[in-house]
Design a protein that fits this description.
The structure is a homodimer.
Chain A lengths: L3 H5 L2 H8 L10 H19 L6 H8 L3 H8 L2 H24 L9 H13 L1 H12 L12 H19 L7 H28 L4 H23 L5
Helix pairs in contact in A: 3-4, 3-8, 4-5, 5-6, 6-7, 6-8, 7-10, 7-11, 9-10
The structure holds a DNA duplex.
Chain lengths: ~230, ~230
DNA sequence: GTAGATATTGACAATCATGTCAGTATAACA
DNA sequence: TGTTATACTGACATGATTGTCAATATCTAC
């Protein structure tokens, strides 16, 4: 059985008798790119940046590694495409969180929760921070003015709320700082949160409590300014 | 001049006439290790993780790359040593910030500022986040219970403050959350802060304002709880 | 069916980084 | 001054990974 098939049989025999149908799978370019990106993303999430190796990813998908190069030009092209896709997904999640499915706007606490949630996915956090570490901001054009956009949306709510309470109009920068703090904190949480929580002896509930606590902190801050006060 | 020295002269001649003293630099093991770590740190800061290549670092120091292997066993050994050193430095900075040079304790705002400051150094932030991204927490034993330690120090101050004001004793978890938030925010700031600030159109002063704003936010929160209130 | 486009492959090339080794130079010490 | 320990080097081995190329299989359109 060992050598029979390949050494004994002549080319003609191969063509006529022995040769089983090659059954090569052929996907659409789009489908192939998707599968490759999925595999790359998973590798990045589980093994970190060095886990993105063409051979390994090819094996995961069940193709040969030149196929990846065919679809993405180079390894760098693959990385760029992965960053672009993840950034876009993240952006969609964030913008989606601004309005729930009924078109209602989420309240601040839920919004904060969704920021943490979107980043807590291991792959996303790792990809974004890797992107920062390697100076690849360029390809993330899709999330360019994301924070400003969100900040503006929140600010207009605050202004309304303040008007309703006959309170002084909140400072735009104050809102921007709230957004920045949330972004920073969620990002930091995604990377060292687990470590810090473990060190502090916090279980899963503790982590949830922390997020609630943070949302509450910001809520109190906003209330303090946007509701009328005697001073 | 081109070939004269090396091709025409026989070994004996080399030994007697032409040979200039080899003047090989020989440092103490400690000194050599320090120089190598310095170079590696600089590479990491400017070029990211992939910048740590034995040949490049060797060239920076002015030695051959096997010399690095001689001192650190392997590339991985170098990375571990670098992580260990940076973690230890970070820890020292943090613990030092708890008490200024007069033995006085820094107040909260200054403490927060120093956390951000310590991490804003590009090398430190990059190294620590790279450490997280690649699951190398192990070698950072020196900063094991750092946050807990700091949190405890701050908490004891809060308790005193509350006693002084005849306010209810603050919750230990509340203080822990303040510490966690600060750590998360400083960490996130170190990685995406520059990007966010740019997007928001903040200049350097704006960044400083943000940190002050954050310190103020926490201060207000603590005051709100630790000073006696009518409710 | 035939033809053209292209997704896919195996084999190979080229580069590059880590690590090994035997030998050399230098400092410390007797 | 001679001996020893070891920091250091050049040349080479090794292995891994990206990238190239010609050939092949499969799909779509005519």
């Amino acid at each position: 059985m060992s050598t029979a098939e390949k050494t004994e049989i002549l080319p003609t025999d191969i063509a006529t008798e022995t040769r089983q149908a090659p059954k090569r799978v052929r996907r659409s370019a789009e489908e192939a790119r998707r599968l490759i990106l999925d595999a790359a993303e998973k590798r990045l999430a589980t093994q970190g940046p060095e886990g993105i190796r063409l051979q390994d990813i090819a094996r995961d998908v069940g193709i040969s590694h030149p196929a990846i190069l065919h679809h993405f030009e180079s390894r760098e092209g693959l990385v760029r495409a992965l960053i672009a896709r993840t950034s876009a997904q993240f952006r969609d999640k964030m913008l989606g969180a601004l309005q729930d499915r009924n078109g209602h706007q989420l309240e601040a606490g839920e919004l904060i929760e969704s920021v943490f949630e979107a980043l807590s996915d291991r792959g996303t956090a790792r990809l974004l921070s890797w992107m920062m570490l390697t100076d690849r901001l360029t390809e993330a054009t899709s999330s360019r003015a994301l924070m400003t956009e969100i900040s503006n949306a929140i600010h207009s709510r605050r202004v309304k709320e303040a008007e309703k309470n006959a309170a002084p109009t909140p400072d735009r920068e104050d809102t921007m700082f709230m957004a920045m703090l949330t972004a920073n904190a969620a990002f930091g949480d995604a990377i060292i949160g687990r470590h810090l929580a473990e060190e502090a002896g916090l279980d899963h509930d503790g982590i949830i409590r922390f997020r609630r606590w943070f949302a509450q902190l910001l809520a109190e801050h906003a209330e303090h300014h946007d509701h009328q006060r005697k001073d």
